């Protein structure tokens, strides 16, 4: 956000290098960035809303099939993944904390640990998906799971794959963002004085965690 | 009252001829711009192209409908044409036109800012729009879909026509809309000039702000819905497939949760433009500034609670029908408030009957009738008769074309001097406005009659006794088309050869007129300190706005 | 969040993390108990508590501006609107109102 708007010709008062010309102060600019990110997170919540409502509607319509199907999901995988994501939220919050305390290297380490956790999450999900493919616990017309032959079971798996798939996509996006941020932190782009980038990336990552906090009980536990 | 020379000097006008248009003349300087004004102009060029494309589809439809039987092309082509007409007009024109076109240009000027909060995001929103447009065009070139722009399942999940690029295109276009919304909300919250409190915001800003709220809350749901249909088509996920336990009506819930607020994304900016123009061309303070401002927010919020009125005969429960029916009545109240306030503004004003004012007149007339027929349609018992007939088609065209496009044209004519520093031929402006208003009436009033008499919409063939009204409608559409062509011609001429105008040819008190026309890239030499209310035409009102000393 | 020169400790983050772990284990255990109709409300209540912890503390909303609160509340409120009015359709389809 450092170049952006033009100034009148001949006028360029000295300013913080991070400050864009159309903002009156860095604080305003940071406020705007945070607001922008929160508004974007709002759209992400609404994006998943449809899936949660779909889940609610079909669970209401097929309570037995949904309960039976969720009992066949890999509960250990879901639980471990929940712990993994919660811990990754901790590490990303710590990264911001360390940058604010001027401890760049600790911050980078935390971001890298977050990435490792994210990879672990994806790895466990990959194992799960493979297991589901083997068991033919697949959405819609591909469903062939013998142990649960109830109407609505296909719907459970359709929603399962849609919800975890969309969530997984967001994990990948979050990882990419965090990787870029980690690189930038390591190269001194951020400081105790200006750490907006890490903050915004952290917010996105926490949202990824938040969505999973709801997916876990709905898909694995009940 | 003359736009004060003192203001011009205080705010530092550059030498004449130099402006955002001349600051960098290479193609790259436009494609890589951070300047909200250039982004706005690029958006305008794009949406105007799609307005004409959508118009071509419409004329093709109306040509076919001259005859009750097969004519010109077959039924499948007809289905594709009305689908593409809807998709083009709604997603490629109506949703982005006023916010991303005029909002981008004018909003920062109106709040005394040098740019929007996130200029690079702004440029990105334009490229994302283009990407979505390319996907949609790809679909069109390959024959397009035949489902109607509403993509109802189960037909949309099973039709052999090319749907996927269209679904993805709409998903991508949604992102552009969201980016614009985020930008404008952040801009209004953080970039207002000193002295510009919320109750001093120009009414256009209120309208765009409310629109942005809707864009953020509603658009993701259509994005998801398009993905779900794509998933069902490509991977057989069966979310809406009854054979898998799915419910096609669930699609309709999701679709209309966005698409009803979407019509407010289209209408609110139009109303915002009208608020500006009514004050300027009546040379009078807005009657009930707060009412107009807050009713924008009212529409934005209450508009979200009404989507089920599209599902009255779809199989929705009687309970929900009742709830949505009642809630749909409420949203009309806010529009009525605005109409009373606009008329109250014009009453005893010093009316300047210029082209934008002609469009205001058209807007008011069509908004009232479109709105009233909307309230009538919200009555379940009546909708049972009118659903899927031309009555609905006429209703929404009264709002979409009659109101929103009139407002778009008003904006185009009002801000043309601001954007390009030239004036167009006023006489031709009024001629075109008359043709458009007449043509519009001739096109769509017959459609109310057709619908009430039972002619279904989206039908390729119709019973012979409907022909007369169809012919009248097509004649009107042709007139309407002529009107647009005339506008295009004289505006293009004005762009190149129009006489250069002064900074504020309308003598408006709007804050955007404090900058030169066209403005320099940096908008203001000195950020103004706002000391007066917007649209303040009282004779004893302070003249102009003073820059910080 | 205002910048302050003073160092603040990382302890609150760890405490929140521990709370989240405890809640996760709780929901895991209660989830396997087959509590019948109470299973869903309980699981959701725990999930909501966990998300409040993440939102308020990890995402610093507790220190954030009122505008941020409005955006956060609006997001969930609108999810609620979509849910309530859509679900009402399915709940009431069999009602004989007339």
Properties at a glance:
heterotrimer, A: 222 residues, mainly alpha, 6 helices, 73% helix, elongated, B: 549 residues, two-stranded antiparallel ribbon, 16 helices, 66% helix, globular
Question: Any overview of this molecule?
Answer:
The complex is a heterotrimer of chains A (222), B (549) and C (98). With 222 residues, chain A is an all-alpha fold. Chain A is 73% helix and 0% strand. The longest helix of chain A has 36 residues. Chain B is mainly α. Helix content of chain B is 66%, strand content 1%. Chain B has a two-stranded antiparallel ribbon with strand order 1-2. Chain B is globular. Chain C is an all-alpha fold and 98 residues long. Chain C contains three helices and no strands. The N terminus of chain C is likely disordered. Chains A and B meet through helix 1 and helix 5 of A and helix 5, helix 7, helix 8 and helix 9 of B.
Give a quick summary of the entry.
The complex is a heterotrimer of chains A (222), B (549) and C (98). Chain A is mainly α and 222 residues long.
- Please give the alpha-carbon distance between the first and last residues of chain B: 24 Å
Number of extended strands of chain B: 2
Radius of gyration of chain B: 23 Å
How would you sum up the major sheet of chain B?
Answer: 2 strands, antiparallel
Shape of chain B: globular
> Which pair has the most extensive contact?
A-B, 50 and 58 residues
Calculate the mean pLDDT score of chain B and round it: 93
Note the overall shape of chain C: flat
| Average residue-wise pLDDT of chain C | 90
Name the assembly state: heterotrimer
- Based on CA atoms alone, the radius of gyration of chain C comes out at 19 Å
| Low-confidence regions of chain B | none
What's the number of helices of chain B?
A: 16
Largest sheet of chain C: none
How many beta-strand elements of chain C?
A: 0
How many helices of chain C? Answer: 3
The percent of residues in helical segments of chain B reads: 55-70%
Strand content of chain B: under 5%
Query: Which structural category fits the helices and strands of chain B?
Result: mainly alpha
Termini Cα gap of chain C: 56 Å
> Which structural class do you get from the secondary structure elements of chain C?
mainly alpha
